[in-house]
Structure formats: C-alpha cells, structure tokens
Automatic annotation (TrEMBL):
It comes from Humitalea rosea. Residues 62-126 form the Cupin type-2 domain. InterPro entries: Cupin_2, RmlC-like_jellyroll, RmlC_Cupin_sf. This is Cupin domain-containing protein. SUPFAM superfamilies: RmlC-like cupins.
C-alpha cells in the first residue's frame, strides 16, 4: 500500500529510533518528581529524542505520599503496576486502588493525587512527551 510505513521505516516526523536495552541488573534509581519515589530511566527519552519517556518507579521504604492535587501537561500517561499497590484519586472517577497487573491511562491535564502506596510498590510509567510540566491544583 502506498503511504503505509514498513517495519524499520519511521513514520514522517518520527525520530529514528534504534534498539534500546535497559538491564535490571545493576540498574540505578534516582530522585525524581516525588520525594517518596525512586526513578529508573529506561533510556526511552534519549532513544526517541524526547518524544516519549519510560520509567520504573519504586516506593522508598519509610516515605509516604503527601496527597496534593496536581496536573501534568502532557499528551499521554500510562501506568502499569508491577508490584505492591497504590491508591489515587481522580477528579473524573474518584478514588481507585491499583494492584499488580492493573493499569491506568490518565487523560491529559486530569487533576489527580496519590493518597497512599505500599512499601513495595513498583510500577512502569510511560509518558509523552518525555519532559513535561507538573502544576499544583486546588482541591
């Protein structure tokens, strides 16, 4: 079909992306947006020229969420819970607890806050663009 991208050919306007591998063994977790979480950059932001980012996020034992309403100025935010649990509150659907295997696709600019999480929480977050603004919001 004319105009249909083939495997290995990026679509128009898409950065050229090479195969990118991030190993769990020896992975480094750094500080990030929230002081009660540690973030492992999976290399997606660098590989996509900032179009996307992916992180594994872990709870830091002994640190807990401070529930603050906020929004993220981005086009796409997807979360997959790998281990433990996390409870969020969303302006549109209310309070939700996510367990291992649960996912959430958060719409752009949805007001939300984290209420609590388990000490062993680990989740995968994929966002676009790779860098975005977070703004505090009133409840």
């Amino acid at each position: 079909m004319s105009g249909t991208p083939t495997i290995g050919t990026p679509a128009i306007g898409t950065p050229a992306i090479g195969t990118t591998v991030s190993r769990a063994e020896g992975a480094v977790y750094d500080e990030g947006l929230r002081a009660f979480f540690a973030y492992r950059d999976l290399g997606v932001r660098a590989a996509t020229g900032g179009a996307f980012a992916a992180h594994v996020i872990r709870a830091i034992p002994g640190r807990h969420a401070v529930p603050q309403w906020h929004t993220h100025d981005l086009g796409f935010q997807f979360v997959f819970v790998l281990r433990g649990w996390v409870r969020f509150e969303y302006e549109d659907i209310g309070e939700v607890t996510f367990n291992p295997g649960d996912t959430v696709l958060q719409p752009p600019m949805v007001k939300h806050r984290e209420l609590a999480h388990s000490e062993d929480l680990e989740l995968l977050e994929i966002v676009s663009p790779g860098l975005f603004e977070t703004a505090m919001a009133s409840g």
